[in-house]
Design goal:
Helix content: 55-70%
Strand order of the largest sheet: 2-3-4-5
Low-confidence stretches: 16-27, 137-149, 286-293
Number of helices: 10
Distance between the termini: 90 Å
Radius of gyration: 43 Å
Shape: elongated
Mean pLDDT: 81
Number of strands: 6
Largest sheet: 4 strands, antiparallel
Strand content: 5-15%
Number of domains: 2
Length: 420
């Protein structure tokens, strides 16, 4: 440590050095010590900067267009694969129906065959008794105890009529039973053919879905890789991070989807209003309007809560087309499993689930309702479980886990489904 006297000598020395240096530089040294301002840019430099900014802006616009196109293509690829998977689910449902019909037809054919055999036995017995009686109808009546040989002509005639009636009824019964048996056999054969056709259709649907899933997986990987690169380049142009740029892209996509879904709902409402106006103007509208439409069932909040809790328990489990648990799901398999846990049966097919539920406008959805996606009710390719605040739990597509998602997509149908 320097004492006070030493510090003073050091300060004096530094001051002398500074004065000597200043004198050596000259009288204009103070002016030269100030920082020199940069030279004004030339017009060429200004033009070059403007051109670079314009190129960057144009590139950003081009990147955004390509990114939007990639998003649209990714949605189309995913929807196509989902549609193929749901078509297979529908084919399986049809096969199960046709199999049950074929089994029922076989049982009916067996029952009618037994009846026909019994009727044939009655005819054989009739023939045997007639033969043993010598071919005489009267003798046959005696054998049956219907003709007692009292000598009463009227009584004998009545008894003979009874015997004749019994014979005729037996023969008619046999003929009817045989005809019914033949018809039942034909029905069973037709049902078997329908079952075989349904089995072939299910096999074809499986092969188509498998091919579609594989093609979609490859294209989805390529599209997502390209999308990641586009987002990174946009982030550099916008001087932000890739994560923030992805959030911005997600927000833009969500806004577009919501606008498209609302436009679709408005169009559906306008079409429904037009149909109602046309119906009210048609002849007989007064009598038709007497029967009011069925009221929408109130939400079953307890069952809905159970269904949602079940779906929450599957979050993170991977999608597998045509799967319905216990740890792999497709879209309709998940909604089926959720509502099965709540004590309600739904078919493992999104189109059937639309038919099995009551219509509820998207604006009036309650937690537990189903939301559907497709071009129309007959072409639904996806379904999710609504949980409130515009969100659903869904099994989205191959390579993705069960997750929360916004319901707002361009293919959202204007009506959901309420399980009642």
């Amino acid at each position: 440590m320097l004492d006070r006297r030493s510090r003073a000598r050091a300060a004096a020395t530094i001051s002398l050095i500074a004065l000597a240096t200043a004198g050596a530089v000259g009288p204009h040294s103070a002016a030269h010590a100030e920082p020199t301002p940069p030279p004004a840019p030339t017009q060429g430099q200004v033009d070059a900067a403007k051109a670079a900014a314009a190129r960057a802006a144009a590139r950003a616009v081009a990147l955004q267009r390509e990114l939007d196109a990639a998003e649209t293509r990714l949605d189309a690829v995913s929807d196509r694969a989902a549609a193929a998977a749901e078509a297979y689910n529908g084919a399986r449902v049809l096969l199960a129906t046709r199999t049950a019909e074929a089994d029922a037809a076989v049982r009916a054919a067996s029952a009618t065959a037994r009846s026909a055999l019994a009727a044939k036995d009655d005819v054989d017995d009739l023939a045997a008794h007639t033969y043993m009686a010598g071919g005489s109808l009267g003798a046959f009546g005696t054998i049956l105890g219907l003709v007692e040989g009292t000598g009463d002509v009227a009584r004998n005639a009545a008894d003979l009529d009874a015997v004749t009636g019994f014979r005729d009824a037996t023969l008619v019964s046999a003929q009817t039973s045989a005809a019914r048996a033949a018809a039942a056999q034909r029905a069973a054969a037709a049902a078997h053919l329908r079952q075989k056709a349904a089995a072939t259709a299910a096999q074809d649907a499986f092969a188509a879905a498998q091919t579609e899933q594989e093609a979609a997986a490859a294209e989805q990987t390529a599209l997502e890789t390209r999308r990641t690169a586009l987002v990174a380049e946009l982030a550099r142009l916008n001087r932000t991070s890739a994560a923030l740029e992805q959030q911005r892209q997600d927000a833009l996509a969500a806004a577009r989807a919501k606008a498209e879904a609302r436009a679709r709902a408005r169009a559906a409402a306008a079409a429904a209003a037009a149909r109602a106006t046309a119906a009210s103007a048609a002849p007989g509208a007064r009598s038709a309007s007497v029967s009011a439409p069925q009221d929408l069932p109130e939400p079953d909040s307890d069952s809905a809560r159970t269904a949602i809790e079940f779906a929450k328990a599957q979050l993170g489990e991977m999608y597998l087309w045509a799967a319905a648990g216990p740890d792999r799901w497709d879209c309709s398999g998940l909604t089926q499993g959720a509502w099965k846990a709540a004590g309600h049966g739904l078919t493992h097919w999104s189109v059937a689930q639309y038919r099995e539920t009551a219509r509820v406008p998207v604006s009036d959805l309650a937690p537990g309702d189903l939301v559907f996606f497709g071009g129309s009710p007959s072409t639904i390719h996806h379904v999710g479980l609504y949980v409130g605040d515009g969100m659903m739990i869904e099994a989205p597509r191959s390579g993705k886990p069960v997750r929360y998602s916004s319901i707002y997509r361009s293919s959202l149908l204007p009506h959901g489904g309420r399980v009642g």
